[in-house]
Structures are given as structure tokens and as C-alpha cells.
Amino acid sequence: MSQSPAPRTGASYAAAGVDIEAGDRAVELMKEWVRKTRRPEVLGGIGGFAGLFDASALRRYERPLLASATDGVGTKVDLARRLGVYDTIGHDLVGMVVDDLVVCGAEPLFMTDYICVGKVHPERVAAIVKGIAEGCVLAGCALVGGETAEHPGLLGEDDFDVAGAGTGVVEADTLLGADRIRAGDVVVAMGSSGLHSNGYSLVRHVVFDRAGWSLEREVAEFGRTLGEELLEPTRIYSLDCLALTRTTEVHAFSHVTGGGLAANLARVVPDGLHASIDRSSWRPAPVFEVVGTVGGVERLELEKTLNMGVGMIAVVPEGSVDTALTTLADRGVDAWVAGRITERGTEATGAALVGDYAA
């Protein structure tokens, strides 16, 4: 006589790998950090289905234009996971989003984030949000909401990714961009804090696959470990750029991210003009030379992948240069004249780097 199978326990969300209680705990832990980003226009707190921002604050604008941007931080999250450091990657996320917004002259108003994990570790999620909140404070914007999603079976227990979206506002008649640039304008470069959040697939290939280095390796050129150098947070320029627009005339900004300095500057150079950037006006930080040397990466390949020490560009008229440099210096931003805008001669419209880097 056959035996009946033993009764099976009913399926549940927890049995499938999703821990709702851990998610609730993460929300509680992050609340204090989100509160630190609050602006007067923000209504309510986290926990609702949507973040609320009082648009009546925009009445002071004659013709307000809303700007939006979204981004992530790419494979840099892998380094945060390997090192077990979760409270800096949020700076990178905010920088990638708000510094795209400010390029057109927009003031970042608020951000939302999306954190996807294989398993919710409340303290880790809260640490990620802490970094995002700190970045928002540096950018002057509010963190009005977000989402934490647990994807067991799709991601490993320690795997995660982050993304964010931001909204800003700019007065229509102060909108910055290519149409304002003229021959004779000056290119002012603002120093980066390091690699920022671009080119990490190349960097990881070089240091891990080709060189076989560990993140704990002390690198003399850096004066710290490889992991500490690679996890250096992205510099956030939004308030610095807005300060420039208040103190002097600015024609355009360019956020130097994926594609490198020349390609991103070319995005704001109008037809018929050319931007020439003098490499001898600065010396890239050691991390760029190390990646190139260790990986045998050609200079042009480095320059189209990494920022090479320049995280943001301001294009200003000749008469604004001194004020621009003074304003940035007062704000602790390393800045210098890196090039000029000229009428197109034999060069193609766009931007190019010339000369050799400073020794």
C-alpha cells in the first residue's frame, strides 16, 4: 500500500527570500539621514507612496524650466561591496545626478533613489542612504523618497546596485548652453577628486585582471591603499557652479563623466567653434598614470574613458575669468584656465586636447 506524501508547508514571501521586516527596519534606520536633507518646500516624510515638493515656491520665477536627470554609479558598487564600505557610494550617486542638472544652470531641488539588493541587511541599506543624504546636503537638494527592492535569486546576498533621479529648476532666460558660447571664451577647469564614478570597468580590469592587485595593497603613489583610492567619493560641484552664476557671467558648464573631457566638452560647443584644451595646464592625479602604466593603456584610450583630473568645466567670457577663479578658490575648488574657444579652422567642430601634461 502506497504512502501519502507528507503535507508541505505553504509558500510565503519570506520562504522565497524576501524579508519584509528587515526592509521596515532599514526604513527606520535611514529616517534620521533623510531628515537632514529637508528643504522648506518638502511636505511630509518618508513612508508615503510619493515624495511631495511644494511647487508654489517656483512662483518667484518668471518662466521656470524644470530639469531632470537620472544616473547610477556603475561598477564602482562592486568595490564598495568588496570593501564592506557602504556610506560613500551615495556621494557618487548624487554627484552623477545633480551635476548633470546644474550644467544648464538649474538649481537641484530634490532627488529620489532606488536601491536593489540581493538580501536586505538593514544597516547596510541605511549606510547607503546615509551617503545619499550627505550628498544631497552637499548639493543643496532634498531626498524626498526612494525604494529598496530585494531580489533574491537574481542577486547574491551581498550584491546591490543604486540609481537615482533628480529634478531642478532654472529661469528660462538664464538657461546655459551652447547657444551662449562665443569665440574668445575661456575654458575654466575644476579639479576632480579622483576617478569619480566613470571608467571603473577599465580600472577593475587593469588592477584586478591584469595586475592581480588586491584592494588592500598599499600603493606608494597614492599614499594609501588601492581600495581607499578607488572608493574616493565623487566631488559634487552643483553649489560651486551656482555660486559662479551668481558672481559672474557663465556661458556653459560641462560635467566630465563617461567619454572623458574632450567628448563631454564637445557636447556644449556649437557648430563653427572649437575648444582647445592645453594638457600642460594641469597634472592629473597619480591614479590616472598608474592605471595607464599598469594596464599599458594608451593615452587616448585613458582620455576617452577617465576624467583625467577634471570633473567640471565652466566656459566663461574673458572678462569673467578672474572672478570665476576667485569664487572657486574661495569655495575650496582647485580651478585653472585650461583652454579657449576659437573659430573653427582646420579643426573639426568640438573639442580636443593638445600638448603634454605638466610634469
UniProtKB/TrEMBL annotation:
Gene3D superfamilies for this protein: PurM-like C-terminal domain (3.90.650.10), PurM-like, N-terminal domain (3.30.1330.10)
Gene Ontology biological-process entries: 'de novo' IMP biosynthetic process; adenine biosynthetic process
Keywords of the record: ATP-binding, Cytoplasm, Ligase, Nucleotide-binding, Purine biosynthesis
Reaction it catalyzes: 2-formamido-N(1)-(5-O-phospho-beta-D-ribosyl)acetamidine + ATP = 5-amino-1-(5-phospho-beta-D-ribosyl)imidazole + ADP + phosphate + H(+)
Signal peptide: none
Sample GO molecular function, one term: ATP binding
Ranges where the PurM-like N-terminal domain occurs: 55-170
UniProt superkingdom: Bacteria
Location(s), subcellular: Cytoplasm
Cellular component aspect of the GO annotation: cytosol
Protein name (record): Phosphoribosylformylglycinamidine cyclo-ligase
Organism: Streptomyces montanisoli
Gene name of the record: purM
